[in-house]
Amino acid sequence: MQRTLSRLGATLVAALLLLTAQVLVAVDRASAADPFTGYLMAHFTGETAIGEQIYFSHSRDGLHWTDLNDGAPALLSTVGTKGVRDPALVRSPAGDRYWVIATDLRIASGTSWSDAANRGSTSLVVWESTDLVNWSAPRLLDVAGAIPGAGDAWAPEAIFDPASGDYVIYWATNATLNGVKKHRVYYTRTRDFRTVTAPAVYIDRPGGQHIIDTQIVESPTSVGGFRYYRASADGQITVEGSNSILGSWTRIGDLSHMGISNGATGGNVVEGPMWMKFNDRTEWALWLDQFKTGRGYMPITSTNLGSTTNFQTVTDYALGTNRKRHGGIMNLTAAEESRVLGKYGVSRPVNRLQSFNFQDRFVRHANFDVRIDANVSPLQDSQFRITPGLADATAVSIQSVNYPGYYLRHINYDFVLAPYDGTAQFAADATFRQVAGLASSSWSSFQSYNHTDRYIRHYAYQLKLDPITTATARSDATFRVTS
Q1: Burial category of 102 from C-beta neighbours within 10 Å (exposed 0-12, middle 13-18, buried 19 and up)
Q2: Of 322, 344, 366, which marks where a domain is finished?
Q3: Nearest to 327 by CA among 89, 117, 78
Q4: Cβ-count burial of 332 within 10 angstroms (0-12 exposed, 13-18 middle, 19+ buried)?
Q5: Which segments does the entry list as coiled coil (predicted)?
């Protein structure tokens, strides 16, 4: 009887393993059946008031990029430090779920690098979507809190592991191990980016050598001899290969022969290696963030990752207006690309707001205060985009052209140009009903969303939010939306 049960059990296990393999193969085939047509980059821009948020950029050829969302952030963190860096884009094998994961860090708030590394957040910030355009609220995922003495959790990445059917999340944490305190790369597993296994060391370089940035790319046909390749910033930009994500890795080489390092041998000192497979050919780009010179990303390319001598420099590339800092690239199917461009790729017209009773004057910002002036210089200080309202899409918000992500907002009934912080209070203060002009119905007036008895008006050339009770006030509160 025991022998029969054992035989039945073995048969059942074999059947389940076969079914699992069939499901994984079906998933792989389903995703491969839809050819990739474009690319989406997620990145941050730098240590500015709104630079440490999630920005999206798009490319058709993988080398020439266009800023999406009119150059403004696509996602804002309202949790943890309220700033994010080093975003990674993750797609489920079936292409039915997506995640953005990022470092919970905001240097622009005044945090020192020492505090960030030794007393920083041990959590990642996570957004989730089923379509790449409608995203959940951000949430914190504590990945490093169980590491003794963990000082941070930086530069996260994640990749689906077909060997186990879940995702491997890996990132850098500064902690003491075997008497040495430094950044090592740790990993954990997850199926839903909500619960994770206990963290374990993934990459530990000898001695006191830190390693912070590492990213893996898959080569399903094993061009160069391995299924997976990873590039790591560990003094050099080191390239390694492996046939399993958590197996042993073979060092292939580094980029020092190209005059590129992560500081150990000088030259062009870079970080944040970011892989991209070209859609139409067997070729990869490795993007490197030239943080030392502030020039942002540069690409090098290879058709065979089995040797670092195969990499070539590229001169014909363009990154758009925003500076691209440490991020990730996702290849897009035609359906995904259509959705992304439908949401983020529609550029709204550039407008100016002309005063009704001082028609040589236009609304402008100056040192983040807002007034009406004639002969505005630079002109962009008086250029805005009228966008769907932050608090109500049937209303409007007024976004700066030369400070994307900054909006006209009232505070104590005075107006400032301020970076959107994702809060409901800001959204309400920066939302208005565009109605027929109070002094002329062919012009426009802007009624406050959260103080409905008040309108935008100028007084002594300064923009205010006031009740309108006189003919002069009606003229002051009337503007022409013009190009």
Answers
A1: buried
A2: 344
A3: 89
A4: buried
A5: none
Q: Is residue 103 located within the same domain as residue 39? A: yes
Range of the domain at 382: 352-482
Q: Which CATH number covers residue 445?
A: 2.80.10.50
363: part of which helix (H) or strand (E)? Answer: strand 361-366
178 closest CA partner among 146, 145, 209, 207: 207
- CATH number of the domain within which 94 lies: 2.115.10.20
Question: Could you read off the pLDDT of 104-145 as tens digits, one per residue?
Answer: 999 999 999 999 999 999 999 999 999 999 999 999 999 999
The answer to whether the Cα torsion of 167, 168, 172, 178 is positive or negative is: positive
In tens, the pLDDT along 289-308 reads 999 998 889 999 999 999 99
Q: Which of 294, 312, 344 is the last residue of a domain?
A: 344
Q: What is the pTM of this model?
A: 0.87
Phi and psi based region of residue 110 (left: phi greater than 0; alpha: psi -120 to 50; beta: remaining): left
* Structural domains in the chain (count): 3
| Beta strand spans in 270-351 (E) | 271-277, 284-290, 296-302, 312-313, 325-333
Compute the mean pLDDT over every residue in the chain, rounded to the nearest whole number: 93
105 shares a domain with 243? yes
Q: Give the pair of three-digit tokens for residue 152.
A: 């941070």
How many beta carbons lie within 10 A of that of residue 408, not counting itself? Answer: 23
pLDDT one-digit tens code per residue, 148-167: 999 999 999 999 999 999 99
Judgement on whether residues 67 and 191 belong to the same structural domain of the protein = yes
